[in-house]
Specification:
The protein has helices at 3-6, 24-66, 73-87, 89-99, 101-119, 125-139, 142-153, 159-185, 195-217, 234-248, 258-262, 268-298, 303-309, 311-331, 335-354, 358-385, 390-414, 423-455; strands spanning 9-10, 15-16. The longest helix is centred in the N-terminal third of the chain and has 43 residues, at 24-66. 75% of the residues lie in helices and 1% in strands. The radius of gyration is 22 Å and the shape is globular.
Amino acid sequence: MSKLTAEATDPVKGSTDDGHPLSHREKQIMRKVDLRLIVGAALGYSVNLMDRGNVGMAAIGGMLTDLDFDGPRYSLVVLMFFITYVVFQPPATVLIRKMGPPFFLSLMIFCWGVLMLGMGFAKRWEEILAIRILLGVFAAGYFPGCMYLLSCWYMRYEVQKRFAVFYGVGCVASALAGILAFGLTKMNGTHGIAGWRWIFILEGVITIGLGFLVYILIVDFPDKASRGWKFLTEEECEFVVHRINYDRLDAEAEEFTLRRFLKPALDIKIWAYAIMFCCLTINTYAMAYFLPIILSDGMGFGVGEAQCLTAPPWVFAALMMFTTAWVGDKIKRRVPILLFNVCLSLIGLPMMGLLKPNSARYVGVFLTVAGANANVPACMAWQANNVRGQWTRAFSSATLIAFDGIGGIIASLVFEKGAPQYRPGVFTALGANVLFLLVVVSLAFWYRRCNEQADRGERIIAGVEGFRYTI
């Protein structure tokens, strides 16, 4: 064993095995991991969110009129993306291990960038529909792939801050997307191209360029990171693997078998996390796809105002996300953070859907967007803290994000009608938050009982002596 590995971190005390603080060298290694892995993953996810959500900006920018989006056609376009997005999640988490994260993730980005570019030249609404279906195929692997990869690099009480940065950069990108869309629509008529088309064309070009950058930045799994771009030395990789094994004993790759991959389907907590994530994403996708329309048709703002007013709630959500993530990792708790955030949404949704003054409704938008989005990394962290094993982690990531897609399907349907206050959608989102709260509380009580049994020697959790569920 190397000297560096012998000084691996105690995941509970935040110190080395012999009780000393983390060395400067150890901090340097994890900082290198952060700069490459978090930055690369976050850049890719930012364009992932922008490219999925820019259809809402294009909708109020003239696309609905130009391409004859009568009746429920817009909701159909939003909905069909999620069909393929859900179906292709499970194989994607297998492929990222087989193909390697740098090639797999950058290829996904490049492909959906090309599709974005194609949407800018669509002549009929059916072409937008077909491209959105394909977009679901290539976007399916990115989020669960990154979530799986990040959870393999960090210990349990380091991970929520990293998830928050990864997801929070996407939220900030969503904020900037509205302002960017506003600027691009001002290019209306340039080279004879409508302004809403420039949204797809230029954002597609940006995405393709970022695909090449992500290939350089993204790193492989810890057991392979010393290969390829020589990101870490073999000694440094050994250190990272050792600290993960010290934390939860699952750093090494496991041979893939279908039985090993599907076995976690019998674990009820995997589905509890999936239901929680579905409840969250009913809210997040409703805001991502329909907030520009709610601000325009529901509150009476002009197109430019609606596009720009989408930005502040997402910035507030990112700040809330970073703050609660730091607190969650600091106190080594997840449930208090989850409950606090869901309460924000439970306050914000009635304000947005039931009050009449636009000022009060807009405050409700802030609380709804912040509460739902801040809970996404918190939910991801809670799940990552309480599952063990490479393929269990892969399967649970796939189911979590598949139910993310189901939440998107529901959101695309319930906010289709109901202007100006969109009460059917608001009441559906409220119900989802109540269900989320009930699942969190139930799972927390069960975890507490399991931990107490393990303390008395009556149970071994996850097959590892000394492992305890994070609550």
